[in-house]
Write a structure and sequence with these properties.
Elements lengths: L3 H15 L8 H6 L8 E5 L4 H10 L12 E6 L7 H4 L2 H9 L4 E2 L3 H5 L4 E4 L7 H10 L4 E3 L7 H13 L4 E2 L8 H7 L6 E9 L8 H4 L2 H11 L3 E8 L3 E8 L4 E7 L7 E6 L2 E5 L6 H13 L6 H19 L5 E2 H11 L1
Parallel strand pairs: 1-2, 1-4, 2-3, 4-5, 5-6, 7-10
Antiparallel strand pairs: 7-11, 8-9, 8-13, 9-10, 11-12
Helix pairs in contact: 7-8, 8-13, 8-14, 11-13, 13-14
Length: 342
């Protein structure tokens, strides 16, 4: 049997060729040829999420971790969501917190971009991300986009198209991707992955597709261990629970359970050729931030556009399955539809 890394690469290659990513292919190749030598001035867009404060505390610490040294948050544009109360009510408090850490508060994204070399797009609301991201990419600044990439699959596709057009590398990831047990699977601890079940909270926000708002965390765990190549999904929906079953092109099956009651927790189980492994626990944002800073240093994207797009196609297909009474929906179909909407 081939080693897991080879297996995963074959899956990714097949997926990129067949899942409706025609106009988006060769992203990774173009990124690999575009290395950015950035300076360490970090700017934040959006102070409506705790991530902004956590990242600033780590980067602006008197003695930051060795992997983070040389990068410091120097400016932030606080405006996030206009109308999501859970976001808007945080802005004033988080603004004061980052100011105490030596961060200058500016009045516009344009002003921010004059003061920084790289950008953390942290706005909790995915709806303005396309407009915000375009300003950053036109300015030539490498950017990390916190979840969700956008509030629709079509906007997610448009953001990645723009990054290719402007030759500016971007990446997005949930911090759950970098849990130690998840990365153990990626490194081959259980051999080839035969299947996986993951779970996370899946709180709903009416302005976003159901899983984009919070379910993204558990879905990202699923794709990190399974790799790309999902061909269709079926969703079972209840008031307090969602179960999404994905069938991969090589016959493997992966499931995501999204919860809205009970313990607020993240994890799952991976089934491998060498044994099964529980996933978790989540221990914070440090591992993700190390990946972000390495990306800023090198321009090398740790999560390919193809994989991120497939994650969002999976979540959009889950919504389509819900609308169709739980029928199977192909990721090809939702990607093609998203392309036509642009």
């Amino acid at each position: 049997m081939k080693q897991p890394s080879n297996r995963r690469q074959l899956i990714r290659t097949a997926s990129a060729a067949t899942i409706g990513f025609g106009l988006l292919n060769n992203f990774s190749k173009s990124y690999a040829q575009t290395l950015f030598e950035t300076q360490g001035r970090v700017g934040i867009i959006g102070l409506d999420t705790s991530h902004s404060v956590a990242f600033t505390k780590a980067l602006n610490a008197p003695e930051p971790a060795p992997e983070l040294k040389g990068y410091r948050v120097v400016a932030a544009y606080p405006k996030g969501s206009n109308d999501i109360e859970s976001s808007t009510k945080r802005i004033a408090g988080y603004t004061e917190e980052v100011k105490k850490l030596g961060v200058e508060i500016v009045n516009s994204i344009e002003e921010l971009l004059k003061k920084v070399d790289v950008v953390l797009l942290e706005t909790n609301d995915g709806r303005p991300h396309l407009e915000q991201a375009l300003l950053v990419m036109k300015a030539g600044k490498p950017m990390f986009i916190d979840k969700p990439v956008a509030a629709s699959l079509s906007h997610t596709v448009a953001i990645y198209e723009a990054s290719k057009k402007y030759k500016v590398p971007i990446f997005s990831s949930s911090s759950l991707r970098y849990m130690g047990s998840v990365q153990d699977v990626v490194k081959g601890k259980v051999g080839a992955v035969l299947g996986a079940d993951t779970f996370s909270p899946a709180t709903l926000e009416k302005t976003h597709p159901d899983l984009f708002w919070y379910g993204i965390h558990g879905v990202e765990i699923l794709f990190t261990v399974m790799g790309t190549g999902c061909k269709n999904v079926v969703r079972i929906n209840a008031n307090d629970t969602d179960i999404v079953v994905g069938t991969w092109k090589d016959g493997r099956v992966g499931t995501f359970r999204g919860t809205r009651t009970g313990t607020h927790d993240y994890g799952g189980t991976v089934y491998g050729e060498k044994g099964n492994l529980p996933l978790g626990p989540f221990k914070g944002y440090d591992n993700l931030l190390v990946q972000i800073i390495d990306f800023f240093k090198t321009g090398k994207v740790p999560v390919t556009p193809e994989e991120t797009l497939e994650i969002y196609a999976f979540m959009e297909a889950a919504d389509e399955s819900k609308r169709n009474g739980g029928k199977a929906v192909s990721l090809d179909a939702v990607m093609q539809k998203a392309g036509k909407k642009k």
